[in-house]
Amino acid sequence: MAAAILLSLPMVSCHSTKSNTHTYRPYHERRNRSAAPNDDATPNDDIQKPVPGGYGLVDEKWAALDIKLGRHDNKKLYKELKSWLGTPYAHACQNKGVGTDCSGMVMVVYDTVYGIKLNRNSAKILEQNCRVIQLDDLREGDLVFFCTSGDGRVSHVGIYLKDNKFVHASSSRGVVVDDLRQNYYATHFYAAGRVNTHK
To answer: Phi and psi for 9 in degrees, rounded to 5?
Structure first.
């Protein structure tokens, strides 16, 4: 399965910390969907800014994301992720409402919602806790990985929701919901992973 997605990435060449390296096409070229909406090369800071002095976005902001939950959606996951929104970014931290980085939030959410312990590093989560899946197989709770640091290594992770939306800890905006089709995330996308359920 993994061999089917080993293609070149035009803007960023990403590889894991394993000896066998892989490169991937951007998200918007790999998924058979309409073109990404017009947006800037970097995330729009006018959307979903962290709430000063606290955490969580107001209900109107969450509703504006146009994520409609069905009866089969994991309400516990959505409730937990909503409670993280607005948490400021803080390197090597994982405290809801106080500060967190991307892997710290993912680690705590997975422990809280699923009772599964993950590694504390995004590259190691992909290598040791996940199996790579096809983009069309993405479902809520799966993880999406990016290489954003320019050194060719997986350096960022988020939790997929639905309808191309994912929650992650942005270094400039804190914990927010973004769209995988945004140019920045599409071009820095590395892989989708499903967490192994065995403990």
So the answer is: -105, 120
Tokens 């109107």 label which residue?
Answer: 60
Q: Is 74 exposed, middle or buried (0-12, 13-18, 19+ CB in 10 A)?
A: middle
SS3 32: coil
Give the chain's length.
199
Instruction: Find how far residue 16's CA is from the centre of its chain.
Output: 16
Distance CA 166, CA 176 (A): 8
Question: Cα(101)–Cα(199) distance, rounded to whole angstroms?
Answer: 24
Q: Which residues are catalytic?
A: 102, 156, 168
- Does domain 2-18+26-195 correspond to CATH entry 3.90.70.10? no
- Residue 95 φ then ψ, to 5°: -115, 115
Q: What are 72-107's pLDDT values in tens digits? A: 889 999 999 999 999 999 999 999 999 999 999 999
* pLDDT, tens digit (0-9, with 9 covering 90-100), for 163-186: 999 999 999 999 999 999 999 999
Contacts of 154 (CB under 8 A, 6+ apart): 14, 16, 17, 122, 123, 126, 145, 146, 147, 190, 191
Alpha helices, DSSP H only, in the chain? 27-30, 59-64, 75-84, 102-114, 122-124, 183-188
> How far apart are alpha carbons 135 and 161 in whole angstroms?
13
CA angle 4, 10, 12 (to 5 degrees): 95
Are the beta carbons of 32 and 164 closer than 8 angstroms? no
